[in-house]
Design goal:
This protein has 152 residues and is an alpha+beta fold. The chain contains four helices and four strands. It has two domains: 106 residues, Adenine-n6-DNA-methyltransferase TaqI, Chain A, domain 2; 36 residues. Strand 2 and strand 3 form a beta hairpin. Helix 1 crosses helix 3.
Length: 152
């Protein structure tokens, strides 16, 4: 077997899991959406956007792994160098798959596994949600004070 044939097989399998989302489509298997246009291309989300791909996972564990992988790649701006387009930048499906495939190979080569970091990432997400809620309350309080101060 050639050295390059195994990653190509993985690439084809990964490419089969990512499709262009069509508005109105519903999915029965675990999935998440990936923005494909603008500066946030590559960003994963549970809700669909008008311009996005959909990642169709085999199970919840597969979904969680790839969601956090995409989130990490997006936060570290790995997709930025693959953006093309003169007015509205976008990322091609093939380029997206290439970046993720490279990341998977890097993750598999390391000593840590997804199970090692998943609890810490979940805890960070929980704290982030709490802080966003607190910021929302502080903004509401500030508005209330301005209304009172300006006699409205």
């Amino acid at each position: 077997m050639k050295k390059g044939s195994k990653p190509f097989k993985k690439l084809v399998m990964l490419k089969a899991k990512i499709k262009t989302h069509k508005l109105g489509s519903t999915y029965s298997q675990p999935h998440f959406f990936i923005l494909n246009k603008g500066n946030n291309a590559g960003k994963p989300c549970a809700q669909h956007w008008s311009n996005c791909f959909v990642f169709l996972a085999d199970d919840e564990q597969d979904k969680d792994f790839f969601y956090l992988l995409f989130l990490g790649l997006w936060e570290l701006k790995f997709f930025r160098k693959y953006l093309i387009g003169s007015v509205i930048e976008y990322i091609r499906l093939g380029d997206l798959v290439d970046v993720v495939e490279e990341a998977i190979n890097s993750v598999n080569a390391g000593e840590r596994t997804f199970l090692d970091v998943a609890p810490a990432l979940d805890q960070i997400e929980s704290h982030t949600a709490q802080l966003q809620k607190q910021i929302s309350y502080l903004i509401q309080l500030r508005r209330a004070l301005f209304y009172k101060y300006l006699n409205y």
